[in-house]
Amino acid sequence: MIKIPVYSSRLVKIAWAGHTFLGLAPDSFIEIAPNTDETDEEVGADSGTAISMSPDFGGTVTIKLQQNSPSNQRLSAIVNAQKLSGRLVSTNMTIKDPSGSVIALLFDAHIKTSPTMTRGNTATGSSHDWVFYVQDMNIQAVPEGFADEASAIADAASIGQILTDFSL
To answer: In terms of C-beta density within 10 A (0-12 exposed, 13-18 middle, 19 or more buried), how is residue 46 classed?
Structure first.
């Protein structure tokens, strides 16, 4: 009998710029959207079809955080540092879902859109949506047990890139 993995949102890990995101929104908290379709088709008057594969591997990743998530403070500090330095923090992002050993390696990700800030009489129902632009998205299934290692290597490479970019 084949054992089907059990999904647990608690085990999904998102890391970018040396930071593991905390306080993910209670509902849907990750959205990955490619910039373009994978293919483009054109049908001629004689019904001949031309198909092109997209050269664009980029897209956006939206991470939804709870209002009181400490990751909001970290990301806000990065946005402020970018404004002061005039340089983007653009590094790799990893998203790991061990229930299916799926890992998303998102190369050269930077904050595209900061969230709209709202406040009410409770913290419930108020999530902050951080949108990242990603130049190259690579989403893959990895053999069981390899997701942790692949994620750790990508995270280490991201930290090295940040140190290189912001060193004097």
So the answer is: exposed
Give dist(CA 132, CA 99) in Å, integer: 24
Q: pTM, whole model, 2 decimals?
A: 0.79
Contacts 24+ apart (CB under 8 A), 143-152: 143/101, 144/101, 145/101, 146/101, 147/96, 147/97, 147/98, 147/101, 147/102, 147/103, 148/96, 148/98, 150/94, 150/103, 150/105, 151/13, 151/15, 151/94, 151/96, 151/103
Spell out the domain ranges in the chain.
9-165
Burial of 23 (0-12, 13-18, 19+ CB in 10 A): middle
Cβ atoms of residues 109 and 58 within 8 Å: no
* Tens of pLDDT, residues 45-80: 999 999 999 999 999 999 999 999 999 999 999 999
Q: Are 95 and 104 in contact (CB under 8 A)?
A: yes
